[in-house]
């Protein structure tokens, strides 16, 4: 079993293709290993090495995939959403204790401004569009000091991501090399990937889904990743034709958009050699799974994952086993059980909180003993992570999720911390009280909404509130519905209640109509 990111690409043939992109030649595994060496030299020269944290803020595409994979072999990667505002970049860079940030050459946007204010070294990435996909050079604007030039090992951190929690501060999830490598190999095995397989990646590469399921799992198998510059429904079928993939992975909202344009692209679908389609990051409605399978003539493999598990926990199996609509599949890597929702003990059956144990699971949240105490427990000689999801196994061993125990809003795979939005809303001078909550959405699963109480004598529109939030947070966190109330409903103890608020305010019926 390979235990490092470097090990995932160590033994593939020199001339085997690894990374592709629209209008670009393929970068081979030999080329990817040579790029890793050049990146290591550049990082060390800039004073960045083992244990140092490097934020990566790049547009989607082969350079982002290559930057993650090569930088992780020398330092700690921390990919960030390029859509963040300066205030958000400042928070994440400071919270990460980033030593450097990778930006495109010439990029002078909010990430650059935040890094400059914090005194964080900026590494400029230059790409040559005539070179193979993913090729780039790194140049430091300033030195970050001295570096540990040793190669990271299995127990060193490869990747750091933030995950929203039930506190206002997003939690830091460190994933070790052994976690990422285990998950990549688990996914590769569950999908029976081989060097002949080619993944069309449309997923953002600052998320665990794209980084591990699309890129790392493919590399583990010696296969090929063709990187689109993000998801674009108008270009998807052209990419499907040009990339000639054997599979792609996406979130349900992407699949639904693809389906809406499938009718006019029958000839491309007919010629496609898709072995399967994969869906993850949010629940895929059963009818959508069935329609996708019928449209593309290929099985739809739904996966169940989360950041703390380095992505995959369960997966619907490949044929000849069944793909069950409404189920997230069978355990696919880690051990998956259900536990009592209040007492830390495993159950032999029935409905309970989904818990996992295995080499792909994070060792724990960073500098957060309170969160770790609530998220992990020992049983049957193993350490179990509590997912916060409620579910049950059927008689065939397939897991179906039956509810959410956490208050996090899952907007089409984008996780939103309600308290983070609360904090921004509460900062508005005319707002006395704010509570962010989820409302059902037919395509995204959940949408962000907020209830607010204004200060006495103040008047403000829903649009003004949304514009205020949009200046401070990424677009996917901005409430699409703002309800202005005289009083926000409270529970028996006087505590504001997020759960059930959409129903109390009559927004469930409105969302369904």
Structure description:
This protein has a nine-stranded mixed β-sheet, sandwiched between helices. It has a five-stranded mixed β-sheet with strand order 4-3-5-6-7. It is an alpha/beta fold and 513 residues long. The chain is 29% helix and 27% strand. Strand 6 and strand 7 (136-140) form a beta hairpin. The model has no long low-confidence stretch (mean pLDDT 93). The radius of gyration is 23 Å and the shape is globular. It folds into two domains: 5-302, 3-Layer(aba) Sandwich (Rossmann fold); 409-512, ANL, C-terminal domain (GMP Synthetase, Chain A, domain 3). The protein is built from 16 helices and 26 strands.
The average pLDDT score comes to 93
Name the structural class.
alpha/beta
Q: How much of the residues is beta strand, in percent?
A: 25-35%
Shape label = globular
CATH class of the largest domain: Alpha Beta
Write the CATH architecture name of the largest domain.
3-Layer(aba) Sandwich
Tell me roughly what share of residues is in helical segments: 25-40%
Cα(first) to Cα(last) distance is 51 Å
Main β-sheet, spatial strand arrangement: 2-1-11-10-12-13-14-15-16
CATH topology of the largest domain: Rossmann fold
CATH superfamily of the largest domain: ANL, N-terminal domain
Radius of gyration: 23 Å
Low-pLDDT segments: none
Number of strands: 26
Number of domains: 2
Largest sheet: 9 strands, mixed
Question: Count of helices?
Answer: 16
């Amino acid at each position: 079993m390979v235990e490092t990111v470097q090990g995932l690409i160590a033994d593939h043939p020199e001339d085997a293709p690894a990374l592709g992109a629209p209008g670009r030649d393929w970068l081979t595994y030999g080329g990817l290993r040579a790029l890793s060496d050049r990146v290591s030299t550049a990082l060390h020269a800039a004073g960045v090495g083992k244990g140092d944290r490097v934020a990566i803020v790049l547009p989607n595409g082969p350079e982002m995939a290559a930057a993650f994979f090569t930088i992780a072999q020398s330092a700690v990667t921390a990919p960030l959403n390029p859509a963040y505002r300066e205030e958000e970049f400042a928070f994440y860079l400071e919270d990460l204790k980033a030593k450097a940030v990778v930006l495109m050459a010439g990029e002078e946007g909010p990430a650059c401004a935040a890094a400059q204010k914090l005194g964080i070294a900026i590494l400029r990435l230059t790409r040559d569009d005539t070179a193979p996909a993913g090729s780039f050079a790194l140049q430091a604007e300033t030195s970050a000091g001295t570096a540990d030039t040793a190669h990271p090992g299995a127990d060193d951190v490869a990747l750091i991501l933030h995950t929203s929690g039930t506190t206002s501060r997003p939690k830091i999830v460190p994933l070790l090399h052994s976690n990422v490598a285990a998950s990549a190999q688990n996914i590769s095995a569950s999908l029976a990937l081989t060097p002949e397989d080619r993944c069309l990646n449309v997923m953002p590469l600052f998320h665990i889904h794209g980084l591990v399921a699309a890129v790392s799992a493919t590399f583990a198998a010696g296969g090929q990743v063709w990187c689109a510059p993000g998801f674009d429904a108008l270009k998807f079928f052209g990419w499907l034709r040009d990339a000639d993939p054997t599979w792609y992975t996406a979130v349900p909202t992407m699949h639904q958009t693809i389906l809406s344009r499938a009718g006019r692209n029958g000839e491309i679908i007919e010629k496609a050699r898709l072995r399967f389609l994969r869906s993850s990051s949010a629940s895929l409605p059963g009818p959508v799974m069935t329609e996708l399978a019928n449209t593309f003539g290929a099985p739809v493999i739904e996966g169940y994952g989360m950041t703390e598990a380095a992505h995959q926990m369960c997966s619907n199996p490949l044929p000849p086993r069944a793909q069950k609509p409404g189920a997230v599949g069978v355990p696919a890597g880690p051990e998956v059980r259900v536990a009592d929702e209040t007492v830390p003990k495993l159950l032999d059956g029935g409905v309970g909180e989904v818990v996992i144990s295995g080499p792909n699971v994070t060792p724990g949240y960073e500098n957060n003993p309170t969160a770790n105490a609530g998220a992990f427990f020992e049983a049957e000689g193993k350490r179990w992570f509590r997912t916060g999801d409620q579910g049950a196994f059927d008689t065939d061993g397939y897991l179906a999720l039956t509810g959410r125990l956490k208050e996090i809003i899952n907007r089409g795979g984008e996780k939103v911390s309600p308290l983070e939005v609360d904090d921004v809303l509460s900062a508005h001078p005319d707002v006395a009280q704010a509570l962010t909550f989820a409302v059902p959405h037919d395509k995204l699963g959940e949408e962000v909404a907020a209830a607010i109480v204004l200060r006495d004598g103040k008047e403000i529109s829903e649009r003004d509130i949304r514009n205020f939030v949009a200046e401070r947070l990424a677009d996917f966190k901005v409430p699409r519905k703002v309800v202005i109330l005289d009083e926000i409903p409270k529970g028996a103890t006087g505590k504001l209640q997020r759960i059930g608020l959409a129903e109390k305010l009559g927004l469930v019926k409105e969302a369904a109509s």
